[in-house]
Write a structure and sequence with these properties.
The protein is of the alpha/beta class. It contains ten helices and eleven strands. It is 28% helix and 36% strand. A hairpin with a 2-residue loop joins strand 7 and strand 8. The chain is globular, with a radius of gyration of 18 Å.
């Protein structure tokens, strides 16, 4: 099931206003140009920010997400008719032959279960043309970024047009090896409503990701640094190669 921040209509409507700076997507736009991608699959598209940026540039985009509330936000945006929106995930896609498949932000890490992760990689491979690329990011476990996910470090009050003040913060609820769970809290000043959203991310080591890609029929072209989080993330650029094991 998708996290409440993506699946609850009231929270999905807040996602973009609470995080308006999406500079993290610029490297992905750059790679779409670099690889001359004319057809892109955006896996875990959320509220459609990246898909719409691509579509504005004339790219044919298929965007998939399991959270209906987030897709509703995406479909209501200007230019949404230029994107093919799919309610689901990469394991159940129609026949595609895209040049590039992407998982931006926390999408790859949010696919926690090993079987689901393997199925997602195989689904991405099936959607790619021969030689097409899969690009995604994952945080470096050694940086232990979750230790900064506390109320003291993350608490803020945001004034949102048409909504009013929204108080928010995050706190870790469990750490089990590479799996980290945390809870976002949202308090709406207009009516006092309080909503929470529980999330879990898997922090994979680089060699683990490379092995998973190889097993799914990819070869790793390179591993880049994330410009917005230097030293904190690996950006994998993998190419569809041999048949999946």
């Amino acid at each position: 099931m998708p996290d409440a921040i993506f699946a609850h209509p009231r929270l999905a409507a807040l996602y973009d206003p609470l995080d308006p700076d999406r500079g993290d997507l610029l490297p992905y736009l750059g790679m779409a140009r670099e690889f001359a991608a004319r057809r892109v699959l955006d896996i875990g598209c959320g509220t459609g920010v990246f898909a719409l940026l691509l579509a504005e540039r004339g790219v044919e985009v298929t965007a998939v997400d399991p959270a209906a509330a987030s897709l509703a936000v995406a479909r209501a945006k200007p230019g949404a008719d230029r994107v093919r929106w799919i309610d689901g995930d990469a394991t159940r896609l129609p026949p595609l032959r895209v040049d590039l498949a992407t998982m931006t932000a926390n999408v790859a890490q949010a696919i926690v279960g090993p079987d689901q992760w393997a199925d997602t990689l195989r689904g991405a491979r099936a959607a790619l043309r021969p030689g097409g690329r899969l690009v995604f990011e994952t945080r470096v476990p050694a940086r232990r970024v979750w230790e900064r996910w506390t109320r003291e470090r993350t608490h803020r009050v945001s004034q949102l047009p048409g909504v009013g003040p929204v108080e928010s913060w995050v706190a870790v609820t469990a750490v089990d090896g590479p799996v980290v769970s945390f809870r976002w809290h949202y308090v709406f000043g207009a009516d006092g409503a309080t909503l929470t959203s529980d999330s879990t991310l898997r922090f994979r080591e680089r060699d683990e990701v490379e092995a998973d890609l190889a097993a799914a029929g990819f070869s790793v072209d390179e591993v880049r640094d994330a410009p917005d989080r230097p030293g904190g993330e690996w950006v994998f650029v993998a190419r569809r190669s041999a048949p999946a094991a």
